[in-house]
Amino acid sequence: MDSDTQKEIDNMIHYLRNLKIRLKLYILIGVALLGMLIISGMSFFLMGRMNDMTNDISASWLPSVDIARDLSTTISNIRLNELGYLTADDVEESSLQYLQSEKAEMDNLLATYGALIDEEESNFYQTALNFWTQYNQADETMMALAKQGRTEDARAILEGECVGLYNSLNG
Questions:
Q1: How confident is the model at residue 1 (pLDDT cuts 50, 70, 90)?
Q2: What's the confidence (pLDDT) of residue 39?
Q3: Rg, Å, the chain Cα set
Q4: Are 54 and 126 in contact (CB under 8 A)?
Q5: Angle 93-116/122-147 helices, nearest 10 degrees?
Q6: Quick one: which of 76, 72, 95 has its CA closest to 84?
Q7: pLDDT tier at 3 (50, 70, 90 boundaries)?
Q8: Contact, 162 vs 82, CB < 8 A?
Q9: By the 8 A CB rule, do 78 and 103 touch?
């Protein structure tokens, strides 16, 4: 440090030491208030960013999570209805209509889910769609066998191929 800089520093220290206590307190309170204003401004800014991220989650992610939950419920309903169909002695037409409506609901939910996802989830979606197509084909085969009275063969499909596909869809 050169001597001019040292003199300036010494002069400032001397000036600060000679200030009255009242002025020193005003400066201290002013610095504290300035610090509080800066912290408040940063807090508002960060809370705004957090609000934007929360809105993104509620608008983009939660609908697809709800659809995924509905997909799981629907495939479980289909599976239960199929099991009931194969084990019942007297199958009501309403049971078959319910099964068909649940399958249509599954197709609708998959289409809706496909519209909500981004590129990262597209591989998962395509895999789920493939499993659903395979499950649907196995189901058609199983139902045809059941209508022919071959319930043991139909049940073998339900407990064999359909279990793996169900687990893949539901897992």
A1: low
A2: 97
A3: 35
A4: no
A5: 170
A6: 95
A7: confident
A8: yes
A9: yes
DSSP code for 61: I
- Summarised one tens digit per residue, pLDDT across range 124-164 is 889 889 999 999 999 999 888 888 888 888 888 888 888 88
Tell me how long the chain is.
171
Structure tokens at 48: 């705004």
Tokens of 96: 């078959």
**CA separation for the pair 51, 112 (Å, rounded):** 26
Q: Using an 8 Å Cβ cutoff, are 166 and 75 in contact?
A: yes
Question: Which residue, 83, 75, 66, is CA-closest to 131?
Answer: 75
**More confident of the two residues 37 and 121:** 37
Cβ(67)–Cβ(109) under 8 Å?
A: yes
